[in-house]
Design a protein that fits this description.
Layout (H helix, E strand, L loop, with lengths): L2 H20 L4 E3 L2 H6 L1 E7 L8 E3 L3 E5 L2 E6 L4 E6 L2 E6 L6 E7 L4 E9 L5 E2 L4 E7 L4 E6 L7 E5 L4 E8 L5 E12 L7 H22 L2
Antiparallel strand pairs: 1-13, 2-15, 3-6, 4-5, 5-8, 6-7, 8-14, 9-10, 9-13, 9-15, 11-12, 11-14
Helix pairs in contact: 1-3
């Protein structure tokens, strides 16, 4: 087998190994059902135990399942919306809402992210920035555009989640969060699409080398 084709295949396999070992995130999701299928030991904080219109001077400590966390902002945290389906927001729309002090070792986090009005009701169309921090130092930032009440974002990392920051990108609406889910990566979760692509390239490189050798 010619050395240059062996080298090509080895480089592709090395890239695959690097992707699996250092990728952050391992996966992201905009579909709640797909996120739920990829995780295990999940617990969701629906905030249904809070009273609509309640204001909290943070940090506020929350416990859900085997996990706990704190949520705070520069101004007060608010619980708004309908009493049967409220959500967390803040008193000053330009300040980020910060989730931290996670315990329980969650490596996956997801929630509904959207906007609300000064009246405490849902409003469509807010653009948001999310920043997620992991224990190993990885930092992931993404934008969610033109959100709705059902807009979902889920993240699976390769080490424990240590922080989540949610910031509104306009001054028209307030950033809002509901149904915060903490979880672990499911043990039967399949390789991410980019990893499968790299594996295919590696196998293709080996196949080409065999073909060229056999035709000489």
């Amino acid at each position: 087998m010619p050395k240059k084709y062996i080298a090509t295949a080895m480089l592709a396999l090395a890239a695959l190994a690097t992707t699996n070992a250092f990728a952050a995130p391992l996966s992201t999701y905009s579909d709640n059902a797909l996120f739920n299928a990829a995780i295990s030991n999940a617990a969701t904080d629906t905030y249904s135990t809070l009273t609509t219109g309640t204001s909290f001077s943070g940090p506020v400590t929350r416990t859900v399942g085997s996990y706990s966390y704190s949520v705070t902002t520069t101004d007060n945290i608010l619980y708004q919306g309908l009493s049967a389906d409220g959500f967390l927001t803040n008193n000053n729309r330009t300040n980020p809402i910060v989730f931290s002090s996670f315990s329980g070792g969650a490596t996956a986090i997801g929630a509904n992210f959207f906007g609300s009005l000064i009246t405490g009701t849902y409003a469509p169309g807010l653009n948001l920035t999310l920043t997620i921090n992991e224990f190993d130092g990885d930092v992931f930032t993404t934008s969610l555009n033109n959100t709705t009440r059902e807009s979902f974002f889920g993240y699976i990392g390769d080490s424990a989640i240590t922080g989540l920051s949610v910031t509104g990108l306009t001054t028209d609406f307030w950033p809002s969060i509901d149904n915060l889910t903490l979880a672990q990566l499911a043990s039967n979760n399949v390789a991410e699409p980019e990893s499968i692509t790299l594996l295919g390239l590696a196998l293709l490189g080996l196949g080409l080398s065999r073909r060229r050798t056999s035709t000489k």
